[in-house]
Design brief:
Elements (H helix, E strand, L loop, with lengths): L13 E12 L25 E9 L4 E7 L4 H14 L5 E6 L17 E5 L10 H11 L9 H16 L2 H8 L9
Parallel strand pairs: 1-4, 4-5
Antiparallel strand pairs: 1-2, 2-3
Amino acid sequence: MKEALPDTAAGKPIEIWLQDEARVGQQGSLEYIWAPIGSRPRAVRDNRHDSLYLFGALCPSRAVGAAIIMPAANSEAMSEHLKEIASQVAPGAHAVLVCDGAGWHQGGDRLQIPDNVTLLPLPPYSPELNPMENVWDYLRGNKLSHTVWDTYEAIVEACAEAWRFLIGDPERIRTIATRTWACVSV
């Protein structure tokens, strides 16, 4: 990891942040629910197509996070998310942001990466390495499924409430997002 860090990070504390985005909307997924064996419980399902993207990032060691809600997943949205993450990094620290290989995570002219953040891509086709996938599963299972949202604004509010629910439980953040391989000893 030392090779991935810029010279400006030398001598600064390093924070590991984990990032991903989730599509949330009216055509959502149904999660499993507890029910007696052999029964088929009823669950609501919306067939409309309004959706948005919840960009989220967590720092398990500090049990903090940063999120934004955007109408699309693209370089501009990711740049805004990176600004939000940069504002949550401890003063004087440098963040290594573990993210997947989505096209809007690629450095270049369109993606604006703050000075206190370095992107560290996961290997291709390895979503199981990104703890944020577990976060999305947890939020869908506890806050974002089996619901019909009437408006786009209702989806936005549900995502904001779900993120506040997660951020309000620091121990839950550590439990879901901590990985032994995602630590720093520089």
